[in-house]
Amino acid sequence: MWPKIVPGAIIDIIAPSGRFEVEVADAIQCFLHQEGYQARISPNLLGEHDFLANSDEQRLTQLQQTLNATDSEVIWCVRGGHGTTRLMPAFMKTPKPAKPKLLVGFSDITTLHLWLNQAWQWPSLHGPMARQVALGLSDPRDVAALLKLWQGGLADYRLTDLKPLNQAARQSLTLTGITAGTCLSLIQTSLGTPWQLQSQDKILFIEDINETAYRLDRLLIHLNNVCVWQAARAIILGDFGEDLSIIAQAQLDRVLTEFAQAQSVPVFTLKGFGHSLRNQPIPLGVPATIEAANGAASVIF
User: Fold this and answer.
1) Which end of the chain, N or C, is more open, meaning fewer C-beta atoms within 10 Å of its C-beta?
2) 216 in a structural domain
3) Tens digits of per-residue pLDDT, 75-87?
4) 108 and 184 share a domain?
């Protein structure tokens, strides 16, 4: 179900969340043209709303249209921010299309990842946003990895340099699970909804940004108290801030270490995925294997 995107393919661009600069659409079109793809961008992508890209009705319509288009394989989100959860009550009534699409994005797009992965059993991709890539705000290594995943699928894709954070992760092990995640605050927001994260036998990728140590601790403890983590196969923690002071980073690290040590499942860290300049693509809703030995570990897809 993971499509391979051939040169000349149409990439549908959507903006289900926050506003963006007017010139971004042209920059996205230019980038995709240089890479040998066609960008399909609605003339109504950007509306007049104060903080959303457009009205709920317009954003929902564009999302549904791209999901049902039969001539494209990839749907690439412009940016995150806020707005996707506003669409979900109506979006959940959308019939599952016959042809799977590869949704790409992160942050607020986590809500759509959870629905597509769990309700429709479609894979998706946590990865750099179209705006970031088009404006040169993404690390070239991650842009290259994104294009490789489009062109070659999951073959030979792996994430290395996982570091163990608790005793369960320091043992030599091989475990498999379905990948899920990623933005912690959106995972918390999913609680009690039809798209709530189902962690049974999952390899969970978790990241976030702009959370102080005490707020991060509150998020993690809440999810711990409602038993979100216990059924998982493993947890992989990404980045939770950028350009932090030494004190602020130490406080975040302490919260994450205490969280990891309280878990019975293996917990690892993987630097370079989240909301920072580095944001390694993470395939979601697909089988993956963690192999760990001698203090080193990798995720193999």
Assistant:
1) N
2) yes
3) 999 999 999 999 9
4) no
